[in-house]
Amino acid sequence: MALQAPPPQTKKSVEDINKLHAFHAKRYPGNLAHQDDYVYTLAFSAASLHRFNLKLGLPGYTEKQKIAAHHFWREM
After folding, report:
1. Could you give the angle at the alpha carbon of 13 between the alpha carbons of 9 and 17, nearest 5°?
2. pTM for the whole thing?
3. HEC-encoded secondary structure of the chain
């Protein structure tokens, strides 16, 4: 299964966020160095739609959707 490149607007969005993080990292040295904070946020974002659907009584992700979501968020 080949991954598709993200759309240009997604790439731009990620670049903008990275620039913002770099700006704040320079302004507040050492305060943005804890990768666990980012991993938690990323994992929460990755699981939230699935969990939201389950909470509403809707079906969660299928096994294939879970794999696709894993590949997507791994690239993020």
Report:
1. 170
2. 0.48
3. CCCCCCCHHHHHHHHHHHHHHHHHHHHCCCCCCCHHHHHHHHHHHHHHHHHHHHHCCCCCCCHHHHHHHHHHHHHC
